[in-house]
Amino acid sequence: MTQPHVLIVGAGIAGPSLAGWLTGQGWRVTIVERARSLRTGGQAVDFRGPVHRTVLERMGLWEAIHERRTRLGKQTLIDASGRALVELPALMMSGDVELHRGDLCQLLFERTRESVEYRFGDAPTALCETPAGVEVEFEHHAPQRFDLVVGADGLRSNVRSLLFGKDTDCLKHHGYRVVGCTLPNALGLKQRGVIYSEPGRGVSVTSAHDEEQVRALFVFTGAPLGPHERSPASACDAVSAAFAGAGWETRRLVDGLREAEDTYFDAIGSVHLSRYSQGRVVLLGDAAWGGTLGGQGTPLAMVGAYVLAGELLASPESHADAFSRFEARMRPYATPAQDGAKRVGGFFAPRSRPGLFLRNQLYRMLTSKPLERVFEKLVTHAANAFELPDHGGGFATPRA
Ligand SMILES: Cc1cc2nc3c(=O)[nH]c(=O)nc-3n(C[C@H](O)[C@H](O)[C@H](O)COP(=O)(O)OP(=O)(O)OC[C@H]3O[C@@H](n4cnc5c(N)ncnc54)[C@H](O)[C@@H]3O)c2cc1C
C-alpha cells in the first residue's frame, strides 16, 4: 500500500486524533462528519494519570489543554437543605486536568484542518470491500474507494451497523437516563460543584467558565431511548416527570431546563462488541467501546487513536495484523473502564434510601485523611492500567 488513503467517519475526538497521527506520517486522510459543522457541545471531559498525560504530550497538546482547563475544585454531596454531607476531591470528578469537550474538539480540529480533508454534512450509506479497498457510498458525495475505513462515529456508530448489522444488540442499557444542559448560575457556584440525590434521581450542578452559568446533569432511572425520543422537548418532559416533588433547589433547576439551548438527552449504556474490526474497516473510540457517561470515553479515544496509528504505521502493508494488535492492546484497557459507565447512574442516583445512605457512608470513609492514598489509587487505577507503546510518530502541526 503506497500512501494509503484512509476514510475516518466522525469528527469528534477519536477521528481527528487518529487523523493527526496518520497525516503526521504522510498518510492521506479524509474525515466525513454527519453534522454540518464541528459539534462542540458537551460538558467537561478529564484526563488523569501518566498514560493520558503522555499521549497528550506526544500530541503536543498538554499545554493548550492546561490553558483551557476548567479549574473545577471540589464537588460536594449535599442534603435537601444544601448542607454538605461529603466533599469529593477534584481528582475524583475532574482528574488531573479537565476541559470542556467543545474546547478539545476545536483544538483537535485546528491542529488537523490543514492536513486532513474534512467533509461536513455527509455520511456513508454503504461499505463494500473489494480486494483493492473499500468502496464507500455517501449520502451526498460521489462513491469513492479508500484503502481503509475507520468508524469513529460515536456511541451509535453507523459504520458499526454497516459492518455488523443494524440489529446487533451491542449497546447495553444500565437502567438510567441522563440530561445535561447549561443553566444560569442561580446558586452562585464558583469553581465547585454540588450533587443532590434522592432514591432513583440525582442532579449535579457545576460551575462553568462563564461565571454566570452552570452545567447541570440530571440522572434518573429509566428505560432505553429510541432514536426519536432524545429531543430537548422529550428531555424536559422526562426530567419534569422524574423529578416531580424532589427537594432542595431541584424545582428551579427543572424549570430552567425549559429555557436551555444545549440540552442533551440519552440513556446510560455501554458498547460491547466481540471484535473491533472486519476486513479493512475498524472501529475506534465510543463506536468500539464507548459508554454514555463515566467510562473515560475521551482519554480512551485519544489513547486508542495513538495505539491504532502506531500499529498501522508499523505495518502499513498488513492492516489485518495492525487491527488485531490494536484490539489486543486496547480491549483489556477499554473494557474495565466501561465499569464506570455501569456504576455512574448508581453513584448520582442510588435506587433506594439504604443505597443512598451507603453511598454517603462509603464516600465519607474513602475521602477521609487515612484513606487519601487508597482513594487516589481507586480513581486513577483504570486510567493507569496500560503500558503505552512508543511508536515515535509525529502528530500533525499546523503551518506557522
Ligand atoms: C455533541 C456531543 C457531546 C458530548 N458530550 C459529552 C460530555 O458532556 N461528557 C462526556 O464524557 N462525553 C461527551 N460526549 C462523548 C465524548 O465525546 C466521547 O465519549 C469521547 O470523546 C469519544 O469520542 P468519539 O470521537 O469516539 O465520539 P464522539 O465525540 O461522540 O464523536 C463522534 C462523531 O461522529 C459523528 N457521527 C455520528 N454518526 C455519523 C455518521 N453516520 N457519519 C458521519 N459522522 C457521524 C458525530 O456527529 C460526532 O461528531 C459527547 C459527544 C458529542 C458528539
TrEMBL record:
Occurrences of domain FAD-binding (ranges): 5-319
Keyword Iron-sulfur recorded: no
Domain of life of the native organism: Bacteria
Entries under Pfam families matching the protein: FAD_binding_3
The name this protein goes by in its record: FAD-dependent monooxygenase
Example of a GO MF term: monooxygenase activity
Keywords carried by this UniProt record: Monooxygenase, Oxidoreductase
Gene3D superfamilies associated with the record: D-Amino Acid Oxidase, subunit A, domain 2 (3.30.9.10), FAD/NAD(P)-binding domain (3.50.50.60)
